[in-house]
Design a protein that fits this description.
The chain is α/β, with parallel strands linked by helices. Helices cover 36% and strands 13% of the residues. It folds into two domains: 8-282, Rossmann fold; 307-427, no CATH class.
């Protein structure tokens, strides 16, 4: 049976959202085409206290609107219709920004000007009154991604004696292994994408990067209300706010939903539309990627389980090559970022090889330092961080003869301003953040 081409659709519809027996169902459609229904599973879901029902409903609405970005991108029609609820002006403006900037990389690669298409309809209604506090238990959901950043957050919260739960979305064995190593209580939420989307993709629908962190954030707001947590602590660092490049006057940031602009606006929406005492923040926001790497290097607790590799994100066995492909931008950056802060044998043991002594990897590292190329469309640090790490390694006897470092020292380093290559200024705690005051002092401890 043929299905309609979503690229020819006039309207994208938010039809309804439901919740029953621990499963949230989110329904969408293009015009009068088949419904796309996504299902989010909350395991062992408790009965919802009556006093939280309004907040839970508001959280479901927010999830419905945000998760729709996965489906909207298949056709990118110029009309958006929200049939499940009325949007006030502030909520509509938030969604406009999320879809335009969160799909910025998608628009760049597909040559679509999203600014002319995305406009969420704001009803002519007064802004709702601020929602009350729910007296949520003092407890933090900590999203685990399998990489170094969330594990740094876990150890900071444990050191502070905070009541925390390691949470992840999906069925990654690698993430589960990291979550178990934390020693925290665990929560694994499931997410099932509508199979109709895969049919659309096979038929040639638009495809590309989406703001996954925004979707996960909305899922965790629902979880916080359902299970009873007063905080959600992501692990997005200061570097995530930096754009990958600028195109047609618009900054394009692969990590937009990990950046400060999203964190601030989403947190404000949660506290005014869902629950006044639900605190959404990033525990690592005032840190650079190098500062996070320096903190991760203080302990070897997770050396044999963590991975940030996007190509080889699975567990097949005990070897480092089961977790690190050694070829992708994430492997390149994590290796480079950790190198200044841990003994060389330990780092080689984590990756199972020396990525900086492989001439075939030159192009990948050149992109990281923004040499003849822009920063990769990946969750990697700023170019200046990579240049500073390279310069630091070039000054060390154990690294300076490795092929990529030697080339950097002779070919690239002489072209750079030495004053901009110091690592120390990049390790300073600085910038905007929403970290609870009781935890902020921990971030600055060296």
């Amino acid at each position: 049976m043929s299905i309609p081409d979503p690229r020819q659709a006039q309207t994208f519809r938010f039809i309804r959202r439901d919740y029953a027996d621990g499963v949230a169902s989110l329904a969408y459609a293009f015009d009068d085409g088949p419904e796309l229904i996504e299902r989010i599973g909350f395991p062992h879901a408790p009965d919802l206290p009556r006093e939280r029902q309004a907040a839970f409903d508001a959280a479901l609405d927010l999830l419905h609107w945000i998760a729709g970005v996965s489906y909207y991108k298949a056709g990118v029609p110029a009309q958006i219709r929200v049939e499940s609820a009325e949007l006030d002006a502030a909520s509509a403006a938030f969604l406009d920004a999320l879809y335009v900037h969160g799909l910025g990389e998608f628009g760049y690669h597909n040559k679509i000007d999203l600014r002319s298409r995305i406009r969420f309809p704001a009803a002519a209604v007064a802004s709702p009154d601020p929602v009350p506090a729910l007296a949520l238990p003092r407890s933090t959901l900590v999203p685990i991604g399998g990489g170094k950043d969330s594990l740094v957050s876990v150890e900071l919260l444990k050191h502070a004696g905070e009541n925390a739960t390691a949470v992840w979305i999906g069925s990654s064995g690698l993430i589960e292994s990291c979550a178990r190593r934390t020693g925290l209580p665990m929560l694994n939420i499931t997410r099932a994408i509508s199979p109709v989307l895969f049919d659309y993709n096979r038929a040639g629908a638009f495809n590309g990067h989406i703001p996954v962190t925004a979707i996960n954030s909305a899922i965790l707001v629902v979880a916080a209300i359902l299970y009873g947590h007063d905080a959600i602590a992501f692990s997005n660092e200061r570097s995530a706010s930096s754009a990958t490049l600028e195109y047609d006057g618009v900054p394009i940031n692969h990590q937009w939903s990990k950046g400060w602009e999203f964190e601030r606006s989403f947190a404000d929406l949660v506290r005014t539309r869902v629950a006044a005492d639900l605190h959404y923040y990033s525990l690592l926001r005032p840190l650079s990627e190098l500062a996070v790497a320096s903190r991760f290097a203080r302990s070897n607790r997770y050396d044999d389980v963590f991975s940030s590799c996007n190509r080889n994100f699975r567990i097949l066995g005990p070897k480092p090559s089961d977790r690190w492909c050694g070829q992708c931008p994430k492997c390149h950056f994590v290796f480079l970022a950790l190198a200044p802060f841990m003994p060389k044998p330990r780092l080689l043991g984590i990756f199972g090889r020396n990525l900086l002594d492989d001439p075939a990897q030159v192009g990948g590292f050149d992109a990281l330092i923004e040499y003849r190329d822009h920063k990769p469309f990946e969750c990697v640090g700023e170019g200046r961080e990579s240049r500073a790490a390279m310069a630091e390694l070039a000054s060390r006897a154990e690294w300076r003869e490795d092929a990529i470092i030697e080339r950097f020292a002779h070919e690239i380093l002489p072209q750079l301003d030495a004053a901009e290559l110091a690592i120390a200024p990049l390790l300073v705690v600085a910038g905007e953040q929403r970290i609870p005051p009781r935890l902020l002092a921990l971030i600055g401890q060296e």
